[in-house]
Amino acid sequence: MNNHHMRGKTYTQQEFFDERREISDTQLVQFLNDGARTPVVVKLTRNRVAMISVDFALPEQTKLRLHERFLGAPDEVLAALRNYLRGRRRSCWRIVSDFAQSIDAGNHPVKEPRTRTRGYYVDLKEVMDQVNEEHFGNTVKAKITWGRRAKSPGKRRRSIHYGSYSPSQNLIRIHPLLDDRRVPLEFIRYIVFHEMLHSQVPAVTRNGRTNHHPPEFNRREREYPEWRRMHILARRLLKTLSERYA
Ligand SMILES: [Zn+2]
Description:
Number of domains: 2
Radius of gyration: 20 Å
Largest sheet: 3 strands, mixed
Strand content: 5-15%
Bound molecules: zinc ion
Low-confidence stretches: 1-17
Oligomer: single chain
CATH topology of the largest domain: Zincin-like
CATH superfamily of the largest domain: Metalloproteases ("zincins"), catalytic domain
Mean pLDDT: 82
Number of strands: 8
Distance between the termini: 32 Å
Shape: elongated
CATH class of the largest domain: Alpha Beta
Number of helices: 8
Strand order of the largest sheet: 1-3-2
């Protein structure tokens, strides 16, 4: 489960489409139970005081209460948590509790994410409504927003993630760099389609690795008209749009 450290080293076509900051609650439960001798029962909380508590009292199950911010924890924290539940090693617990202490739950109660659909050139709500009707029979209920611009635009960026989908917020984010007259609308439509598809086809976790593009996902993506050309365009635009940051 080392995906974000490997980004850039092991290049795959899909990687610049998504930036994943978190996993879903089902994926977390799967991950923690994958290969476990004692089943782990997970309860996610928004508790402001106790970020994590583990109950080993019952031999037939381990009870774990966890703040939902753990869904966005780095891979190594989740791996340490899994190891801790199995071997109760202090070194693993330290990694987990460091992360727990970094959660600032009191000052920032979980709230509805702010969304902004209207850009300079493109209204994402319009785009999404059209794609929803054409490709999903209006079944997608996700929200959509332009992402926030980078804090230090002077810095050269190595990669741009065109879009992302957050299962816990049910929110699609589109990179603000795409709100640019050099970006064809058909490309934005395609990226929106790709992220909407993520809301319909969940990622699959096996052996601690999460595949965000399982076969079912790829099959449905290939039904999108001209997806090949869109992939070529994705690569080309990456160059064009990075220039501004050079
Ligand atoms: Zn994707």
